[in-house]
Amino acid sequence: MADTASERTRIAAPAEQCLAIALDFERYPEWANDVKIAKVLERDADGRGRRVEYRAAALGRSVRYILEYDYTDLPNSFSWRLIEGDLMRSMDGRYRFEADGTSTRVHYDLAIDVSVPLLGMLKRRAAALIVRNALKDLRQACEPAGS
Asked: What is the CATH T-level fold of the domain 3-142, as seen in this structure?
């Protein structure tokens, strides 16, 4: 059964900038602390990553997974689903971007089901930690130094 987590944060940058950084998958290792490798395997007609392979630190080890992205709701949001992965049965997520003056409210929703045996409480905490860290890292990548 998938565990879910949702969180939002305000980023002191325009929504277009936040979206552009979030869609630049190959640069994730530069700012997303847990992502070690991100490789676009397939692009859509607009040149965006449609299938992306990641290697990331998770649950005390290195994991590999491939996500498939859906851009139907751009520029307001984009979503993804797990195609294959080492430790996960499923991973569905979505980033939503709401312009708020000169800043942006970013929402991150995640549903994840890991294939390793963990207590339910630990799985829920892991999902929440993934979401919290992703938003923190995205904020740092989007905001000008000193914000």
From this structure: Alpha-D-Glucose-1,6-Bisphosphate; Chain A, domain 4 (3.30.530)
